[in-house]
């Protein structure tokens, strides 16, 4: 496995509208990979997420990550579930 790659396991696109000072909460479905070991988490390699909130014009309003691997969000919209990418979001072919 290439340690400089990540696989997109899940995308959860949602649309919502908020009035000033309102809150929005969303829960995404759990994803289990072949590398999961119930009850044990071994660091960033096994846990990560990226949240991007865009305004009506497509501008990025909020960007939050729980992994330091990615270099930015440019290109996130074009990624496909089950495919592998490098930290610059360029497609990779990864062999097990």
Task: Show the helix and strand layout.
Layout: E1 6-7, E2 50-54, E3 60-65, E4 84-85, E5 91-92
Antiparallel strand pairs: 1-4, 2-3, 4-5
Describe the protein's architecture and organization.
With 96 residues, this protein is mainly beta. The chain is built from no helices and five strands. The protein has a three-stranded antiparallel beta sheet with strand order 1-4-5, with no helix packed on it. Strands 2-3 form a two-stranded antiparallel sheet. It has a domain at 1-12 and 48-90. It has strands at 6-7, 50-54, 60-65, 84-85, 91-92. It is 0% helix and 18% strand.
Looking at this protein, list some descriptive labels:
3-stranded antiparallel β-sheet, mainly beta, 96 residues, 5 strands, two-stranded antiparallel sheet
